[in-house]
Amino acid sequence: MPRIPKILLLLASVALVLTVFLGANATGVSAASDPQENAYRQINVYSEVLSHIQSDYVEEPNIPSVTNGALRGLAESLDSESGYLSPEENKSYKTLKGGKAQVGINVSKRYGYATIVSVVPNSPADKANLNDGDIIESIGDKSTHELSLASIEMMLRGEPGTTVTISVVRPRKAAPDKVDLTRAITPLAPVAETLYENSTILYLKPGILDHDHVSQIEGKLKGLNKGGNKKLLLDLRNVADGDMAEAQRLANMLLKSGTISVLEGQKFPKQTVTADPSKTVAEKAPVVILVNRGTAGAAELVTAALQDNKRAEVVGEKTFGIGSQQKTFDLPDGGALILSVAKYATPAGKKIEDDGVTPGVLVAGAIDDGDDDNAAAPARKDQVDDQLSKALEILKNKAA
Nearest 5°: CA angle at 151, between 149 and 154? Predict the structure, then answer.
C-alpha cells in the first residue's frame, strides 16, 4: 500500500476513536467546542508524526501494529481501566469473557504494566506465592505493556487444567521470575469469623463482596449482640473483587444516615446513594475496618462511606484505587473501545479511582525485610499482624 493511503488509514482510525470519545457527529464536529476543536487539531500533529515514521524510520513500519499502538495509547492515557481492543482481541474477548477457570489474580495496570492488586486465597496464584504489588511483565511471549487490561484478564482465563506462563517482577528483586500457573475454578470461601476479647469483638473476613458474602455478613450482624458480641472488626484486606451495589448495601447495614457514594461523569447522570435507615442492621456497634494496598473497588466504597461518615475507624495502608464504571463502544472495523464513563466518589468528594482511601490510622503490613533473595517471600504465618493488633487495641478501648 502506498505511503499516503496508509497514513490516511491510521488517521481515520484515530479520528474514529476521537469521535466516540468526544461524542461528536458530523454536525457536532463543525460546531465543536474549544476542547473538541483542540482534540481534532491534533490530527495534524499525528499526520506529521506518521509521515516521518513512514518515510524516515529505519525500516518500513507495520501500519496495523502502529495503528493498534496509537489507539491503545490514546485510551490508556486516560486511566488504567480504559482500553482499545483490536478486531481480533475483541472477538476473543466476547467469546471468553466469562465462566472460565482463572489463576486467582485480581489485576489492574500501573506504570504501563499489569499489576497484581490481590491474590485469591488457595488459588493457583496463591500457591505460587504471588503477592499484591507484584508486576506481571509478560504473559506468554506478550508484554503486558502492549496489552489492554481487558486482554490481560482474558489471557489469564481459560479452560480448567490449562497452563499459562507469566513473567513476574517482585518488589526489591530486579530479575523477573517465570511462573507457570495451572488455571482452576477456585471455590469462594465463606465469610471467616473469629471472636476476640472474651467474645466481645466479632471479626469478619470476606474474600469478595458479592451478594452471597454480603448476605452472610448481614446474617452475622443481625446476631451481633448474641453471646456478648458488641463490637465489629471488618477485615477488607486483599478484598479486590465484588459488586458496587452490594458494597452500598453493606455500608447501609452499618450506617443509618448520610451519603454512601456518588457516581458521576462528564455525560453520566449523577447518582447519589444515601443511607436508608430501614436497611440498617447494626447502627450503634463500634466498628474498625482493616485495609491494605490489596483493598480495591467495592471494599474501598464501603471503607470510604463508613470513614467519611465517622461511623468507623480505618486501620492499615492506603488502598489500591479502583472505582470507575466502563462502557464498551463497538467500532465499525470489529474493534472496541472500553471507556470509563463515570467514577465513584466518596462522601467527602474524593474520587476512589484517583485517590484510593487513606486510613485514619496508618500501619504498615507484614513484609519480609530480609535480603533481596528472600524479599519476594510472603509473610510467615507466625509473623505478628501489627494491623490486626492495632485494630483490636482500638476496639478494646471503645465503649460498646
Answer: 110
Cα(77)–Cα(322) distance, integer angstroms: 16
Cell for 182? 495451572
Query: What is the amino acid identity at position 210?
Result: D
233-270 pLDDT, tens digit per residue, is: 999 999 999 999 999 999 999 999 999 999 999 999 99
How far out from the chain centre does Cα 84 lie?
Answer: 17
- What is the pTM (predicted TM-score) of this model? 0.85
All 3 cell numbers of residue 203?
471479626
Torsion sign (Cα): 387, 351, 240, 80: negative
- Pairing of the two strands 336-345 and 163-169: unpaired
Alpha carbons 234 and 307: distance in angstroms, whole number: 13
Q: Are 71 and 11 in contact (CB under 8 A)?
A: no
Amino acid of residue 382: D
| Lateral strand order in the sheet of 287-291 | 192-196, 201-205, 231-235, 287-291, 313-316, 361-362
Distance, CA of 172 to CA of 373 (rounded, Å): 9
